[in-house]
Design a protein that fits this description.
151 residues; alpha+beta; Nuclear Transport Factor 2, Chain: A; seven-stranded mixed sheet; 46% strand
Length: 151
Amino acid sequence: MALSLQELSDRMEINDLIVRYSTAVDRRDWDLYETLFTDDATIDYTEAGGIKGDRLTVRNWLAEVMPNFPGFQHMISNSEVTLAGDTASGRTMLFNPMVLAKPEGGTHVAFVGLWYNDHFVRTAQGWKFASRYEEVSWMHNWPEDFAVPST
């Protein structure tokens, strides 16, 4: 099945949006992060120990919490996108090594594999996330007593 130019463009724009998300988080660019979501978007990180909320609530939470992690990378792959006119859904794999600060000093490296389950919408500013849900697949080398730092 051949894709139309519009479908190709939509897929490329959605892929760029997914990449910008990882870039925003890894650079701790919370202004960029906020622009990636619709005003009424829902973001749900609860399965990984985070919060669920609107884009501003989650943005502010990330800005407070992420400095507790000395290092991390969001490496995405295997994006599956289903287009439906001005909306789309997607599922993208994430491999996320994270450096955790130990309370007694030093660091600990842990790993998480998850999927981003997304709904997208075309807006006047381009494609945006209408919702994002993190589905945890596995965690490796996480301290048993680890909890996401509270704000």
